[in-house]
Design brief:
With 272 residues, the protein is α/β, with parallel strands linked by helices. It has eight helices and 14 strands. The radius of gyration is 21 Å and the shape is globular.
Length: 272
């Protein structure tokens, strides 16, 4: 509390407030960072007329995740479902390693899905960048799964099961030790000769229904030397954000999930 016009108040000191990121659109909420009477920064709501500036418990949890995520030369502050196209693994790690490192430095949780034959290489690359992999794994900050522990568990791809897995991973209850979970997934499992893998476009589309509940970014990577042009185009249309040429940008080809699902259903109908 502090004194204003002879009365006690805990209203924010507006002169010291700075604009902050907008919450998810589903919350329809804007917040600001203010200094309180003790010089401590606080996150507060920009209220509608007569509204309360204080945040609810849920909003405070969301505010903890509002620190900007830097990715591929830009700031990720819109949709958090990103596809990334690369020609080589070297290019992939060059572009994404700063995103990984920033997360570890901030105490965010990392959830990575990789080719089982490249798991050790992936861990080695993280270690070469100064990340204490063993410590991060032991305290739950880093979890690296291979495809057979995620997308193609039990030798097949079940999109419903995988979406449920990701929803569980990104659940606020699983965010400990950090406020944010940064996802990363190599998607070449879809090239394996296994049941269900042809549902990849529908799966990526349905993720856009499931993921907006969370503020956690997930980057799905695709090797342009292995996927054909028609799949690449469809995959691009299922992601609101895209990394091409090493640069993150809003995707002009993105198709909303309901519209995309309708198109996919029509394709299946035409084949039958």
């Amino acid at each position: 509390m502090r004194m204003m016009n002879g009365q006690q108040t805990d209203a924010p000191i507006l002169e010291s407030c700075q604009p902050y990121f907008r919450f998810r659109k589903t919350l329809e909420l804007k917040v600001i960072v203010c200094q309180n009477a003790f010089g401590v920064e606080e996150v507060r709501r920009i209220p509608k007329a007569g509204g309360d500036f204080r945040l609810t418990a849920k909003e405070k949890m969301m505010a903890a995740t509002m620190e900007p995520v830097n990715l591929a030369g830009s700031v990720l502050n819109r949709s958090y479902h990103v596809c990334a196209f690369f020609h080589t693994k070297e290019e992939q790690y060059r572009v994404l390693m700063p995103y990984f490192k920033e997360g570890f430095e901030r105490g965010d949780r990392a959830f990575h899905i990789v080719d089982p034959s490249r798991r050790l290489e992936h861990l080695r690359r993280l270690e070469q960048e100064g990340i204490d992999v063993a410590n991060a794994e032991s305290k739950g900050q880093l979890e690296v799964r291979s495809w057979d522990q995620a997308h193609v568990k039990n030798g097949r791809f079940d999109q419903k099961q995988m979406i449920e897995t990701l929803v569980d991973i990104f659940s606020p209850a699983k965010r400990s030790p950090g406020p944010l979970t940064r996802g990363f997934a190599n998607m070449e499992w879809a090239l394996e000769d296994l049941p269900g893998v042809h549902d990849i476009v529908e799966y990526e589309t349905r993720l856009n229904h499931a993921l907006p509940e969370y503020h956690d970014p997930i980057v799905c990577t695709y090797d342009l030397s292995r996927f054909n042009a028609s799949i690449v185009m469809d995959i691009m249309r299922t992601h609101p954000m895209v990394i091409i040429g090493g640069i993150l940008q809003e995707n002009p080809f993105y198709v909303p999930p309901n519209e995309m699902l309708k198109e996919l259903a029509e394709r299946k109908s035409d084949k039958n």
